[in-house]
Design the sequence.
């Protein structure tokens, strides 16, 4: 199946810092998504991207769908303690219910 | 009201036993999934059902059998449990055309002793 390479694997940052994580693949996807998982919960959708080059914001979060359709990044500005969690990228082929997830980026924010 | 609900939330059982996890969604979605999350937090798709029909069946041992009595329910039955089956199992649902916008349940943590 299609592999998504997500990095970094983990990040330890100070409250107020900006965060950047990305996802790459050897396959072309028509949809890129970013999810966040809090401890003991299921993943929750943060941002969905549907067109190559698309840049979308959701509050302090900004994500982009790479021009090549093989990558995406997520930025979090001015991090706060509740940003702690695991962030997953996910890719979806067109007309396909089979969504693949990256391995996740575990974010720790120190107050 | 919980949108996607799974039961039980925790399940501890002995190797060789048979167990089931139930999932219900009240969102009116027509596609449902089971994902397995291992100890390293990697999420792997197991099954996908669309309007009670099996769409995706990844290389999952045939000890795992999904059952969808109607489009709001997707249950997972596991026979002859093995140690490696220990994981968190997530149910999820979406509208067929929503392009990846999944709603996940809270997960069912299965521990096989």
Sequence:
């Amino acid at each position: 199946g299609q592999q998504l390479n997500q990095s970094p694997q983990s990040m330890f940052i100070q409250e107020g810092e900006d965060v950047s994580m990305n996802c790459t693949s050897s396959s072309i996807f028509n949809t890129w998504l970013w999810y966040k998982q809090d401890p003991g919960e299921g993943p929750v959708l943060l941002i969905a991207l549907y067109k190559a080059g698309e840049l979308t914001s959701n509050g302090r979060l900004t994500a982009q769908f790479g021009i090549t359709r093989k990558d995406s990044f997520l930025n979090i500005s001015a991090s706060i303690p509740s940003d702690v969690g695991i962030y997953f990228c996910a890719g979806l082929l067109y007309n396909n219910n089979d969504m693949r997830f990256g391995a996740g980026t575990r974010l720790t924010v120190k107050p | 009201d919980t949108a996607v609900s799974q039961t039980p939330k925790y399940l501890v059982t002995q190797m060789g036993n048979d167990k089931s996890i139930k999932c219900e969604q009240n969102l009116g979605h027509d596609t449902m999934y089971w994902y397995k999350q291992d100890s390293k937090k990697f999420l792997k798709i197991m099954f996908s059902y669309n309007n009670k029909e099996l769409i995706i069946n990844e290389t999952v041992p045939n000890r795992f059998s999904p059952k969808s009595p109607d489009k709001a329910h997707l249950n997972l039955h596991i026979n002859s449990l093995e140690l490696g089956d220990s994981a968190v199992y997530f149910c999820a649902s979406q509208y067929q055309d929503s392009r990846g916008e999944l709603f996940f349940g809270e997960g069912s943590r299965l521990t096989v002793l």
